[in-house]
Every structure is written in structure tokens, then in C-alpha cells.
Specification:
Layout: H1 2-21, H2 27-32, H3 36-49, H4 54-57, H5 66-73, H6 79-111, H7 118-144, H8 146-149, H9 152-165, E1 184-189, E2 192-198, H10 200-240, H11 242-269, H12 274-297, H13 302-309, H14 312-333, H15 338-362
Antiparallel strand pairs: 1-2
Length: 364
């Protein structure tokens, strides 16, 4: 078929390029020899570094024209960010249904696990991931509501800080709102303290920010688990041969770039700054290095290692489903502009289509 011919052509092109480029490699590198564990760690690190690419792809509000900067700086209203989030939802759904689950079911069938129902075990792990992520978000979002329900501790903090700054006496012009319908809030800074505001509107906004922050951390957790599986795959491929390892690294890298753009958008939506989001993405890369080390350490017992880690892919799929359908999609459903809805749905389809393309042409 045309698809197989295209895949074969890409393989031949890659082998040709590797052969030609080999003539330009410095002699001292060629004399080092092939060390699988070193190449495994390098490949995993390269994939992890793709997490900072979105910083150069997604516009920076501070360097954008005035109108675009205002639009990009407010995640709740940013049309650009909503398009990126739609792309992220499509990428996550495509990754789950076109990559993670099919690969899991193929492995289950090949291993003969699950008796007459090889997909049952995988399905249970998907549900486990989905439900665990739901419970974690519910629990930690509940903690964000504690201050809203009881404003008194905030007022105590305000009084304490003001007493400290004024030498034991409250300023004459201080008017507290303790016990009223509104609630006080305070921020402590190196030079003293100041009232950040009062009233339910501020608290509601902070509560929403806390809820979204939890969603961002859940996304980082899911990505860490996903990167762990990438490390396993890269190291396993380099243990077979150099060519297999390079092919696997390039395939996963190209697969991850659009994924990382979507993840970066989710972190921005969750209240992360651009730099904090980039640092968080790099931290998740450590899970990829850990996966590579596990694969290298268990290289003498490949079958046993695969059996012990076969739950990771379906569990990650469940986490991705929660992030896409429970955390991000509801915000997109609130869109009232029909034209923006069409663009967001198109971005979602683009994310799915790109994941399908990567799966067909790079992971055959």
C-alpha cells in the first residue's frame, strides 16, 4: 500500500543519511565505540529537552504587540491559548486512542496475558488512572476551599503582620473586615506587609487559581509517567542496536514535540509563568532518564521487565483522559463565539490528526 511504501522510503532515506553523515564524524568519536547505556541516556535527555521548545513556539506576551500581549496575558480570555488547549486535547486523545491503547493491547495479545480477555487487564488500568487522577484533583481542590470557608485565620494574619510593622499598635486608619461577608487577605513581602484586597471576588479568583494549579501538577505527573515509558523504549532500542536506538529516539522526539506544546499550554492555563512551565517540563525529563536506567539495569531480564512495567501505558492513558476531558475540555465548552468554537474544534482535530500521522509513519 501507499502507506507501507512511504514508510519504507523514509527508512531508506534515514539509512542513507546516516551512512553519508558518518564520513563527517570526527575520528575521536568513532574511536570511542558503541556504548549502549551512554547513548540511551543521551537519547532520553534529548527527548526531555524538547520540553523547552514551546517557549520558542508560543508567543511571549511581554514581547507581543500591545493588543496581543493583553490577550495572551489573561489565560481565562486568551483566544490563542484556548486554541493551543484545543490542540492539546486533540493530542492527548490521539495519543491515548491511537498510540498508548493499541500498543498496550498488542503487547497483551503477544504475551498471552489475561486469558480469554487480553484487553480486560488494560481496561482496568485505564480506569484506575482515570479515577486516581479524579480523586487527587478532588482532594487537593478541596484544600483550596478551606480559606474560603473560614476567613478568620486570614484576619489574624493581617493583624499579626500589622502589629509587627507598627511596633505593637494597629494603624488608626485600619478597618478590618473580619467576620463580615467579605474576607481579608494579605501578602507578606521582604519590606513588610500590605493588604492585597478583600471581598469574595478576590477569594473566588484565588480559589479558581488553586484549582487550576492542581490540574497543572496532575499534568506534570502524567507526563512524568509517560516520559518514564519513553526512557524504557529508547534504552531498549539502543540495547538492540545503534540504528534501532536512533530511529526510536527520532520517532519519539517528533511524536513529543506537538505533545509538549499542548502540555505547555495546559501549564500556562494552570497559572504557571513561562519560565516556571519550562522548568517543570525539564523536571519531568528526569523520569525519562530513570526509565532508561531501569531498562539498562534490567537488560538481562527483558521479558520480566516488560511484564512488570506493562501497566504503565494504560495507567498513563487514563490520566491523559482525565486531563483532556475533565480538566481542559469544560473550559472550551464555555466558548460562546461560534467562529471561535469552529477554530477550537479544528485545532482539536489537528491534534488528533498529527498524532495519527506520527503513529502511522514513525512507529510502524
Amino acid at each position: 500500500t501507499m502507506m507501507n511504501l512511504t514508510s519504507a522510503f523514509l527508512d531508506e532515506t534515514f539509512v542513507y543519511l546516516c551512512t553519508e553523515m558518518g564520513h563527517y564524524v570526527p575520528e575521536f568519536i568513532g574511536s570511542i565505540g558503541y556504548v549502549p547505556w551512554m547513548f540511551s541516556l543521551l537519547g532520553s535527555a534529548l527527548i526531555g529537552l524538547s520540553g523547552i521548545l514551546p517557549m520558542f513556539i508560543i508567543p511571549d506576551p511581554s514581547k507581543s504587540p500591545k493588543g496581543e500581549a493583553a490577550e495572551l496575558s489573561d489565560p481565562a480570555e486568551s483566544k490563542t491559548l484556548k486554541l493551543l488547549l484545543s490542540f492539546a486535547v486533540g493530542g492527548l486523545l490521539g495519543d491515548v486512542f491511537l498510540h498508548l491503547l493499541p500498543e498496550t493491547w498488542e503487547n497483551e495479545l503477544a504475551a498471552g496475558n489475561g486469558g480469554g480477555h487480553p484487553s480486560l487487564r488494560s481496561g482496568l488500568w485505564v480506569l484506575a488512572g482515570l479515577l486516581l487522577f479524579t480523586m487527587v484533583e478532588k482532594i487537593f481542590s478541596g484544600y483550596a476551599n478551606v480559606d474560603e470557608a473560614n476567613p478568620q485565620p486570614k484576619c489574624v494574619e493581617i493583624a499579626t503582620c500589622l502589629l509587627r510593622r507598627s511596633g505593637g499598635k494597629l494603624p488608626d486608619n485600619f478597618v478590618g473586615t473580619c467576620g463580615q461577608s467579605g474576607s481579608c487577605d494579605i501578602e507578606d513581602v521582604p519590606n513588610g506587609c500590605f493588604l492585597a484586597g478583600n471581598g469574595n471576588a478576590t477569594d473566588a479568583a484565588k480559589d479558581e487559581a488553586g484549582h487550576k494549579k492542581v490540574a497543572g501538577y496532575l499534568n506534570l505527573l502524567a507526563n512524568s509517567i509517560d516520559n518514564f515509558t519513553h526512557g524504557l523504549a529508547v534504552a531498549g532500542s539502543f540495547l538492540v542496536s545503534l540504528q534501532h536506538g536512533i530511529l526510536a529516539t527520532i520517532a519519539i522526539l517528533l511524536h513529543e514535540i506537538p505533545h509538549e506544546v499542548g502540555d505547555f499550554a495546559i501549564l500556562l492555563r494552570s497559572g504557571f509563568s513561562r519560565w516556571d512551565a519550562a522548568k517543570a517540563q525539564l523536571l519531568t525529563a528526569g523520569a525519562g532518564l530513570l526509565g532508561a536506567l531501569v531498562a539498562i539495569g534490567g537488560s538481562g531480564a527483558t521479558t520480566a521487565l516488560e511484564a512488570k512495567t506493562s501497566w504503565i501505558a494504560p495507567f498513563t492513558a487514563g490520566g491523559f483522559l482525565h486531563i483532556a476531558l475533565v480538566t481542559v475540555l469544560p473550559d472550551l465548552l464555555d466558548e460562546s463565539d461560534p467562529w471561535e468554537s469552529v477554530k477550537q474544534f479544528s485545532a482539536l482535530l489537528l491534534g488528533i490528526g498529527l498524532m495519527a500521522f506520527m503513529t502511522v509513519y514513525l512507529e510502524h
